[in-house]
């Protein structure tokens, strides 16, 4: 298929990043972005949590906050798409500007603050999709957040689980966005135990024939104590997996002023090394017992492969697409398949955690 991004990309860069994103969503919704199938890569087929992924490369949360373009994104070749974060009630998020590019660094900085249309609009779209025989193949996750003004945070996640457990292939409890005051404190041992317990109870109360896996998404900016607490609580709570990681509040040396002084979470290339390190640590701390999704700075097959060797069963990306366009998905898949072949791995699962052996 023809890659239009070399033409469209520079045009999009003439708009401020949030306007460019809005135009991209519009184009995807209107079917202007052609589907791309890619090659047949049997080595990329992955079974995780009893779910069949055609390939392990997913779209990270935050691109499709309102579940408007999941099918369009699956048709670009992603094995899975994570929509959200969605909060129970609609909310506007932080004032603009709240999304910034650092082009030379291949980075993005955001402080969106969970702007979204709320749970009902999100769920209605997933219901329409469920009933649409023409929906795209592939898996769809729902990433749950909390409203800014909710005092008892766990309530919001419970509301999200109840509504979306019957509609999503997996659920994510996101307690790691840096742009909602107090959110990341939920990663502490006691609040986390309470939150995950209540979210898992809410899922059980749905009495579904098959429970969607419930994952916890964590920050890359954690102390050693935080990390071992999270691993312990994750294992004892019965949560099904972890996503490592969200954006970072750190500012690597190469991020220039005035951007480095902007509040928010940094993603893209500068996040690759720190998030992969945390991924590796979490794999070690959980003894490889919990499937992990690696996110943070993936922009090539080699990056995806490094996350898998560090312990990820699946990977996700978002920021690299801002710079590389949607053709990146197929490139990452092809490069990953070639790297697995080079190293004698018949399938992704055989390479998971290879760096620990
Ligand atoms: C603009 C933007 C918005 C995001 N919004 C969310 C969100 O709503 N929920 C969430 O869990 N992660 C969100 N993320 C984080 C991404 O899902 C991902 O964890 C992070 O960006 C690292 O991956 P990347 O380097 O490939 O972008 C957002 C990231 C960006 C760049």
From TrEMBL:
<comment type="similarity">
    <text>Belongs to the dihydroorotate dehydrogenase family. Type 2 subfamily.</text>
</comment>
<feature type="binding site">
    <location>
        <position position="143"/>
    </location>
    <ligand>
        <name>FMN</name>
    </ligand>
</feature>
<feature type="active site" description="Nucleophile">
    <location>
        <position position="177"/>
    </location>
</feature>
<dbReference type="GO" id="GO:0106430">
    <property type="term" value="F:dihydroorotate dehydrogenase (quinone) activity"/>
</dbReference>
<feature type="binding site">
    <location>
        <begin position="246"/>
        <end position="247"/>
    </location>
    <ligand>
        <name>substrate</name>
    </ligand>
</feature>
<comment type="subunit">
    <text>Monomer.</text>
</comment>
<feature type="binding site">
    <location>
        <position position="179"/>
    </location>
    <ligand>
        <name>substrate</name>
    </ligand>
</feature>
<dbReference type="InterPro" id="IPR005719">
    <property type="entry name" value="Dihydroorotate_DH_2"/>
</dbReference>
<feature type="binding site">
    <location>
        <position position="268"/>
    </location>
    <ligand>
        <name>FMN</name>
    </ligand>
</feature>
<keyword id="KW-1003">Cell membrane</keyword>
<keyword id="KW-0809">Transit peptide</keyword>
<protein>
    <recommendedName>
        <fullName>Dihydroorotate dehydrogenase (quinone)</fullName>
        <ecNumber>1.3.5.2</ecNumber>
    </recommendedName>
</protein>
<keyword id="KW-0560">Oxidoreductase</keyword>
<feature type="binding site">
    <location>
        <begin position="61"/>
        <end position="65"/>
    </location>
    <ligand>
        <name>FMN</name>
    </ligand>
</feature>
<keyword id="KW-0472">Membrane</keyword>
<feature type="binding site">
    <location>
        <position position="65"/>
    </location>
    <ligand>
        <name>substrate</name>
    </ligand>
</feature>
<dbReference type="InterPro" id="IPR005720">
    <property type="entry name" value="Dihydroorotate_DH_cat"/>
</dbReference>
<dbReference type="GO" id="GO:0005886">
    <property type="term" value="C:plasma membrane"/>
</dbReference>
<keyword id="KW-0665">Pyrimidine biosynthesis</keyword>
<keyword id="KW-0812">Transmembrane</keyword>
<feature type="binding site">
    <location>
        <position position="217"/>
    </location>
    <ligand>
        <name>FMN</name>
    </ligand>
</feature>
<feature type="binding site">
    <location>
        <begin position="110"/>
        <end position="114"/>
    </location>
    <ligand>
        <name>substrate</name>
    </ligand>
</feature>
<feature type="binding site">
    <location>
        <position position="297"/>
    </location>
    <ligand>
        <name>FMN</name>
    </ligand>
</feature>
<dbReference type="InterPro" id="IPR050074">
    <property type="entry name" value="DHO_dehydrogenase"/>
</dbReference>
<dbReference type="Pfam" id="PF01180">
    <property type="entry name" value="DHO_dh"/>
</dbReference>
<feature type="binding site">
    <location>
        <position position="85"/>
    </location>
    <ligand>
        <name>FMN</name>
    </ligand>
</feature>
<dbReference type="GO" id="GO:0005737">
    <property type="term" value="C:cytoplasm"/>
</dbReference>
<feature type="binding site">
    <location>
        <begin position="318"/>
        <end position="319"/>
    </location>
    <ligand>
        <name>FMN</name>
    </ligand>
</feature>
<keyword id="KW-1133">Transmembrane helix</keyword>
<dbReference type="InterPro" id="IPR001295">
    <property type="entry name" value="Dihydroorotate_DH_CS"/>
</dbReference>
<feature type="binding site">
    <location>
        <position position="245"/>
    </location>
    <ligand>
        <name>FMN</name>
    </ligand>
</feature>
<feature type="domain" description="Dihydroorotate dehydrogenase catalytic">
    <location>
        <begin position="44"/>
        <end position="340"/>
    </location>
</feature>
<dbReference type="GO" id="GO:0006207">
    <property type="term" value="P:'de novo' pyrimidine nucleobase biosynthetic process"/>
</dbReference>
<comment type="function">
    <text>Catalyzes the conversion of dihydroorotate to orotate with quinone as electron acceptor.</text>
</comment>
<comment type="pathway">
    <text>Pyrimidine metabolism; UMP biosynthesis via de novo pathway; orotate from (S)-dihydroorotate (quinone route): step 1/1.</text>
</comment>
<dbReference type="GO" id="GO:0044205">
    <property type="term" value="P:'de novo' UMP biosynthetic process"/>
</dbReference>
<feature type="binding site">
    <location>
        <position position="174"/>
    </location>
    <ligand>
        <name>FMN</name>
    </ligand>
</feature>
<keyword id="KW-0288">FMN</keyword>
<dbReference type="InterPro" id="IPR013785">
    <property type="entry name" value="Aldolase_TIM"/>
</dbReference>
<feature type="binding site">
    <location>
        <position position="174"/>
    </location>
    <ligand>
        <name>substrate</name>
    </ligand>
</feature>
<keyword id="KW-0285">Flavoprotein</keyword>
